Amino acid sequence: MTTTVPPRASGRRSPWRIAWASMVGTSLEQFDFYLFAYFSAFFVGPLFFEPLGAAGAALASFSTIAVSFVIRPVGALVFGHMGDRLGRRTTLLWTVTLMGVATGLIGVLPSYAQAGWLGAIGLVVLRLVQGISLGGEWGGSVLLATEHAHPLKRAFYAAIPQLGSPIGSILSAAVFIVLSFALPEQAMQDWGWRVPFFLAIPLLAVSLYLRRAIDETPVFSELARAGERDPHPVRSMFRARPLALLIAIGSAQLGIGSYALMNTYTMNYGSVVLGYPYLQLLTAATIGALLQLVTIPLFGALAARTSSALVVGIGALGTALIAFPLYFLLQSAEFGVLVTLMVVGGILPTMSWAALGGLMSDLFPGRFRYTALSLGYAVAATVGGFVPLTTAALGTWTAQAWWHPGVVLVALSAVTLAAAVAAGWEIRRQAPRGGADDADAVLLSRPGES
Q: In terms of pTM, does the model score above 0.70?
């Protein structure tokens, strides 16, 4: 099959422009999601679940986080099917709209004092919508970036949407810190907590503008032109690449699980058990997130020069080696050492995170790639959502032994290391049978592509 293509990408198809547009949308999704994580720790219980008492309200508050993780695979299946049938760009317009609107609506919910349980019911419904949206966002963002790029540079462009996680974390932490200093506690309780959620609306407008201004990916366009869109991508994925799906889930465990461990459990553990001021921990984590803005593209470039599976594996092996020393030193550290530990503890898992999109893209053909990436990531995220709870239970069982978080971090690293090795083998095994689609070959034929 021969296809005529222009020698250079148009402005609407510039890989750089599209990668950044993809990253902005992912940043919005992550900002909205992390914002609620900060919000739930302080406001959800008292505002929406007051009759349950302090302990019951806290449990209900954290349960609203859990429901959005559990529902993610549903969103992955729905939007994965849409992405493989209707297109990557169209589907991503839906996912980012759902997230932005749901987040904005949280800001107008009535508290229990204002409308009884109506606000709590609305909160759970909107959290489910957010989780469904996230189920389809990550896979589409990675494909939007990679399927516009030359396949030999796919690993680098796959790392750009990964910047959305630290950017979303930085923005949400910054908003939370600024409001905490700018408003009295009573004002925050009365109305200030609503302000961050309203910020989702202008961010949504920017994201929609950027995504509407770009073209559908050449890979999907070629599949549609040739009449090769899979009518049943979910079924085809399970029939053709069940092992690859398991490998994808395993490969994502460290990148997702370590973030939940470091930014959720370790923050609480460091404050409540080790006695660090919460603001110190938040500052240290934010500094580590700022460093990720540099290291993620660098690790993506390394993956493009070597292989995504290799970079994921190195990150997992390195994390396993530093896990126990990290938590041993954390037991008694000054602020400078604390920052260093948070930075060092984040760099090696970031390797696995940065190269994850490239690895997963290489595992699956274009005709059901959106479904496969979305479901693999969503299942891994669902497992990752239970990491803080599992670590807390282990801490209770071991009487808060210093090494208990290290056990979890080593376990996550071992799973990802094994999956990375298997991914390298699977990608090589599939290559002789057409590891790159005919649609991917369109990009290979572009001599001037970036």
A: yes
